Amino acid sequence: MRHLTLAFxxxxxxxxxxxxxxxxxxxxxxxxxxxxxxxxxxxxxHDMEGLTGQSDPKTFRFAHPDRYAxxxxxxxxxxxAVVAGLFEGGADEVHIVDGHGSGNPDPDLLLEDLDPRAxxxxxxxxxxxxxxxxEPGVYxxxxxxxxxxxxxxxxxxxxxxxxxxxxxxxxxxxxxTEIVGYSWGRVGVPxxxxxGDDRLALDLAGPMxxxxxxxxKTATSASTADPRPVDEARAELTATARRAIENYxxxxxxxxxxxxxxxxxxxxxxxxxxxxxxxxxxxxxxxxSFQASDFREAYDGLIELVTVARGGYSGVLGExxxxxxxxxxxxxxxxxxxxxxxxxxxGRWLPPEPIPSIQRTYHGFR
Length: 366
Hints:
Layout: E1 3-5, H1 6-13, E2 27-30, E3 41-46, H2 65-88, E4 93-98, E5 118-120, E6 141-145, E7 165-169, E8 172-173, H3 176-185, E9 191-197, H4 198-205, E10 212-219, E11 225-227, H5 230-246, E12 253-256, E13 260-266, E14 282-284, E15 287-292, H6 295-309, H7 313-325, H8 327-345
Parallel strand pairs: 3-4, 3-6, 4-5, 6-9, 9-10
Antiparallel strand pairs: 1-2, 2-12, 7-8, 7-13, 10-11, 13-15, 14-15
C-alpha cells in the first residue's frame, strides 16, 4: 500500500508546500481502500453556501422562507448535475446526506425534483453526518457539493462548522471539506470532488490537490458573490464529477497523525473568553487547545467547545434588544433572572413540561 508523509505526498502531487526540516508529521496520505463488494458507491454531502447562481446569504437560511425556497432550487440543480456525472463516470450507487442543517425538518433538497437514481440517507434518530456514517467497506469515495471556505478566508459565507468558529488539527486550520476528508480517511475513503467559490478552491489547493474542483462563483465579500452562468457551471459540475469517479483510485485518503492536537479559535460573534483563568483549560487569545488520542475524540471535544463559544451570541441579542426596546427589555430580562433564582430557592419553581417527542426522519445535520 502507498503510505506517504504529508510533505512527500504533496511534492508528488505537485503542490508547492514546504515542510521545515525536523517538523512533525501532521497527517498521513494513503491510497484508497480496496473495493470489497464490486459496487462503486459514492456518498455526496451537500451544503448550501457554495451553490451555482447564488449571491444572497438568505437563500441558505430556513428563517427566510421566500429566499430559502430559491436556494433549494439552486441546491437541487447542483446536486442533480453532480449525481449525473457520477453515474456517467461509472458509479453504481449514489447516496446523499445533508451537511447543511438549515433547521428545516424536511430535507433541504426538493425531493420531487431530485434525480430518482440517488438515495437520500436517513435515520430515525439524530446523527452527526460528519462522523456517525463512517464505516469501512460501505462507500468507495465521497463528493461534496455547495461547500464554503473556512473562517477567515474571505469567501462567500465563509465559516467552519458554525458562525465565528475556526478549527485547527495539528496546527492546520481546516475547512469542513477537510473535516469530512479526515473523518472518512479513517477507513480509507477519499474525498474526490468539491464545488464552491474561488476562496474554497484556494483553501483546498494545498491540503487536497487531488480533488476535482468546480468554482461556481467568485466571492466579493462574505455576503456577496459574482456567480457564473448557471448552465455553464452545471455542465462543468457534471463533467468534473464524471472525471472524479473515473479516476478516484488515483486520489488519496487522508488521516491525522495521532495523538491529535486540537484547537478551537473563536471570532465574532462567538466568544471563548469565559474560559480564561479556568484551571486546567489551555486558553489564550480566544483559543482553547487540548490533545486527543484520535480524530473522533478531537472532533467530539471541539464540538463541545463550540457549544461554549456560541454563548457569545447572546451579546448580539443584547445589542438587538437595546436597539429595539431601550433599557426596558434589559430590566425585564434582569427581573426574570432574579425571579427564577428566588423561586428556585423558595421551592416555588417547577421545571417546564418536556416537549413531546415527534416521530420524524433525519437526513443529516438538523
